[in-house]
Amino acid sequence: MDRKDFIRKGLLGTSIFATGYPLANAISNNIDELRPLDIIGFNHIPQISANIMTNTVLHKANTRGHADHGWLNSYHSFSFAHYYNPDRMHFGVLRVLNDDTVAAGMGFGTHPHDNMEIISIPLAGNLEHKDSMGNVAVIRNGDVQVMSAGTGIQHSEYNKSSSELVKFLQIWVFPNQRNVKPRYDQLSLNSKDRKNRLQQIVSPNPDDEGVWIYQNAWFHLADFDAGFEQSYHTKQAGNGVYVFVLSGELNVNGQSLQMRDGLGVWDTPELVFTATQNSEFLVMDVPMTV
Predict the structure, then answer these.
(1) Phi, psi of 33 (to 5 degrees)
(2) Are 97 and 77 in contact (CB under 8 A)?
(3) Cβ–Cβ < 8 Å for 7, 40
(4) Cα-Cα-Cα-Cα dihedral of 15, 119, 61, 82, to 10°?
(5) Distance (Å, rounded) from C-alpha 112 to C-alpha 47?
(6) Residues 222, 287: Cα–Cα separation, whole Å
(7) pLDDT tens across 18-74, in order?
(8) Contact at 8 Å (CB) between 129 and 137?
(9) What's the pLDDT at 19?
(10) Can you tell me the distance from the alpha carbon of 172 to that of 146, in angstroms, rounded to the nearest whole number?
(11) pTM here?
């Protein structure tokens, strides 16, 4: 299979069941479908409409795709399901960044994935996970979860609470190895380790901090006090960095970002993060070539 066919297959996605807790009540909403593309670039080449400079793409929070399914309120930084924007297909190997809120007792019924690295970062509430590998777990705020879908897995995710919302980031990354044996990992993070520093939560190395994935990508969470500044160097030549602000206000190399804004930068080995307010943010250092 050539690279173009591989990427097209990776974008086809699958249907997801949207259900209340008894799976017998499942109804298919096709929420997780990624439409097939006739042409897709292997590098992120933004267009003027994406509000960019030579090596920067800015995604303001209010320009993201949005879908409100009642039980699921989801914002898409990149094309996903019924949101299609040819200027926002991916940032290098970063394919999906969804900002999801799930109603009490509701969730994603059992559905398949393959050949994708899937990372979940809960921001509030408890998310219950079950999969075809036999894993049953509750992912809480402060945890990070990863699945290497590889040859194929099926899983479900539900809001564990009957009264509280679950909020989490769902992130998909193209892998650098296909058809690997599926795997699951979950880690509880110490939030103190990101106070005025970058806490590594994802890397390509099983012996490194955080969980690991089949890709030369590094993710960091940070919680900066107003006025705190820190520089960051990309981990690998040719990588770009996508910054997503969870709260507060952040300046990145002179670009001001507010809550839920995203900024992608490439061909720039060093970035400087300056919190203009108390700020929490996610840094994703990823290869720019798929």
Answers:
(1) -80, 135
(2) yes
(3) yes
(4) -10
(5) 33
(6) 21
(7) 333 333 232 233 444 444 432 232 223 333 334 444 799 999 999 999 999 999 999
(8) yes
(9) 36
(10) 10
(11) 0.84
Provide the token pair at 240. 């770009």
Calpha distance 252→157 (Å, rounded): 34
CA pair distance 12, 35, nearest whole angstrom: 6
Of 245, 225, 246, 234, the closest CA to residue 285 belongs to 234
Radius of gyration of the chain (CA): 18
Query: Quick count: other Cβ atoms within 10 Å of Cβ 185?
Result: 15
Pick the CATH number of 3-40+48-287 from 2.60.120.10, 3.40.50.1370, 2.40.280.10, 3.40.1390.10: 2.60.120.10
